[in-house]
Structure to design on (154 residues):
């Protein structure tokens, strides 16, 4: 019995050891859902510096499963989050900050007409409608809001 308990503790501690403290693992990545609010650029700096040496960045969403994982967290906390894409380099062309890959190459979740809306809104967020349904949205980069950092699982 003690042997089984010790193996169970070893498995649990090893699973937790894949991500830094304060991060949650999903597949091969670790995510930090911030409790603080920052501008979009401030959020990227916080991801890079606050979690050094983890080499975290604002999250890059690679596929529908990852998107749904992040959407579920936003719904559960009823919180909107900065994510790692903007059109700051080329207006109207949203690119992921850490790869330069264009958003929507494989899939996208701009479900509402008018998004991205342009104007002064150049940074991407996971937003929530009045029914707590998440979607991608472009937002003014100087707004302060929560953010999601991502780093590779060890």
């Amino acid at each position: 019995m003690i042997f089984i308990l010790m193996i169970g503790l070893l498995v649990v501690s090893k699973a937790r050891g894949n991500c830094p403290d304060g991060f949650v693992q999903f597949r091969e990545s670790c995510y930090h859902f911030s409790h603080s609010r920052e501008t979009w650029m401030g959020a990227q700096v916080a991801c890079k510096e606050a979690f050094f040496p983890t080499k975290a960045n604002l999250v890059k969403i690679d596929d529908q499963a990852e998107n749904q994982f992040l959407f579920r967290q936003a719904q559960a906390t009823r919180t909107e989050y900065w994510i790692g894409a903007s059109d700051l380099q080329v207006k109207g062309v949203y690119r992921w900050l850490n790869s330069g890959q264009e958003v929507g190459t494989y899939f996208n979740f701009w479900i509402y007409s008018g998004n991205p809306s342009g104007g002064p809104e150049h940074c991407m967020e996971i937003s929530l409608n009045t029914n707590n349904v998440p979607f991608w949205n472009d937002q003014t980069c100087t707004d302060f809001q929560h953010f999601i950092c991502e780093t590779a699982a060890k």
Observations:
- Confidence is low (pLDDT under 50) at residues 1-15.
- The beta strands are 24-26, 29-33, 57-58, 81-86, 95-96, 121-128, 134-140, 146-152.
- The chain is about 25% helix and 25% strand.
- Residues 2-16 form the longest helix (15 residues).
